[in-house]
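Subject: Interface between my chains keeps coming out wrong

I've been trying for a while to get a sensible model of this assembly. When I model each chain on its own everything looks fine, but I need the whole thing in one frame so I can look at the contacts. Pasting all components below, labels as-is. Any help appreciated, I'm running out of ideas.
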Amino acid sequence: MDIKSEELKEIEKINVPLAYVKGEPYLNIPKDLYLPPDALEVVLDSFEGPLDLLLYLIKSQNFDILELPVAKITDQYIQYIDLMQELKLELAAEYMLMAATLAEIKSKLLLPLVEEDSLEEDDPRAELIRRLQEYERYKKASLNLEVLPRIERDFYLPNKVSYKAIKKDEVYQNVDLEKLVVIFHKLMEQTKFLTPHDVKKDFLSVREKMTLILNLLKQDKFVDFKTLLDIEEGKSGLIVSFLAILELIKLTLIDCAQANQDSAIFIKLK
Amino acid sequence: MENTKIKKIIESLIFSSTSPISLKELANFFSEENIPIKIIEQIINEIQEKYSETGVILNKVSTGYRFQVSEDCNQWVSKFYPEKPQKYSRALMETLALIIYKQPITRTEIEAVRGVSVSSNIIKTLLEREWIKILGYKDVPGRPAIFGTTKEFLNSHNLVSLSQLPKLDDIIELTEQEKKQLGLLDIEENIKKNVNSDMNNDEEYNNDNIH
Amino acid sequence: MENTKIKKIIESLIFSSTSPISLKELANFFSEENIPIKIIEQIINEIQEKYSETGVILNKVSTGYRFQVSEDCNQWVSKFYPEKPQKYSRALMETLALIIYKQPITRTEIEAVRGVSVSSNIIKTLLEREWIKILGYKDVPGRPAIFGTTKEFLNSHNLVSLSQLPKLDDIIELTEQEKKQLGLLDIEENIKKNVNSDMNNDEEYNNDNIH
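Reply #2:
Try treating it as a single job with all components included. I did that and got this:
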């Protein structure tokens, strides 16, 4: 932790070496701007864009951002860019754009101003200063982030402790009823089982009744035909029950017996 | 180094490791500190003792030591992690659909419609689940079982009666033109699409495995 | 259920989980057993106390409780694992800083502040790390993604809320009006909003521009 904040301080001091070439630290870009080509690439890599480079140039010479000495900074910046181009280093377009911006500000400053206040709204430097300040804020914030404790660098979590999965009392998941209908429909279509006569309005209720009757019959050996008919169900209910019984007889699932014409009809499982 | 410190470090190492840590690895690790393996072994025993009454225990497996959930907590951890919802195979869905809509029905009849044999597993699953039951046996050679749905099936699907099931009639009894008028063709298309896509990413048609 | 039993179960749950477990999740889990949340909270405190002197400690992060290697053991764990943690580039850290302090933010907005283009790799790495997420898409041509930080970012930095982060340095003394002109008030507003919404345990940042 202490080491980290030390590091931060160093970065903030800006005197952190820009590069190491053959073990030699380069603290500043030399005045004559000579750097071994290999190192320059490293130096360029260490800048996060033109704002970062500008910020470096300002800080390294103890200038105040608000007093942005455009003439000096522009010269240095452009020299820097020139050198990089000379060395045929691939230069991000943003660096060129900044050079143009600086040149523009410089030329504007050369024109006589009506009022000489330092940071008027029409100060051509104002926008650049604002951008530099804003960038600096976030740059600092990013350095602060760097020293936050970070998982798997500064702290660790225990690995997931394994457990033996124990099967629960199975709670069966329901089937999707809509899907069930469609599946049935498809099956019927596939097998050409489906004829108009097969599907009647009471199709299901008769089928259901057949099952209910079979259930009843399972429990008692003989059942009175009348007990299978429930007046409460109304006329259509009675018809359904009757159809179900007929269907069951047809399927030879049940037997129907009557001692004589007037006696009760008994039904039993076959 | 003090034993309490070594104990803390060993705990943290074993906890943070993805694989069991052996005594030898620990001994190597502590070699710079000149800690004899005897001491490490003793400390491990102490850790085992210390965790014996907690939710995790230090267990020795073939490649070393690792923590695992204690025996009596396994069921709770299992309960905490919901199992993946079961997906029913197409074969099971078809069999169930036939039993529902054409009950009472025998296995042979199901097979006649589906064109493939019905695996015993499916019937077994449906019976175990108490969604279907044997209503009786058909009076033909072999006396095949006759299947029908149960109250349990209705209950578990929040139905009072089978008549509450989505109606098949609506889909099939109308002429194409009528369907068009009612906008049912679109619905059907959607349903078909769904079914098709299901068939594609689902199990194959003939796969009778439920899980 | 006895408290010692509950304690064992909670230990085993938190130890076996890959992500932190919240008090609410535990309360839900134990609702069948009619264990009041007060008791669970008390037990968690006891667990924290119990583990305070071991190699792992129970810590509270934004999404709940998790064990982590105790402060003084981290260096030993780090030593035990030869592989070094990933180092992130300055570009990535600056991008992250902007997303943290200026969220919701688009890539173009990040680039405007940094003065250079943001590589797709940086965004990809941050998304994969689950430190940032796409909150929505801005309703302007191209529909650029709007980025914000995640709970995972907080968890990865041992934070409960963004408000614990170091404050953006007030480098310049500006009047309220100047701040307004420079759009700096928005930054503060955004952070405040975000911190609040984080505290409310919300999911997404609400913004009219986000769909």
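Reply #3:
Confirming on my end. Chain A touches chain C at residues 46, 48-52, 66, 92, 94, 98, 130-131, 133-146, 148-158, 160-163 (CB under 8 Å).
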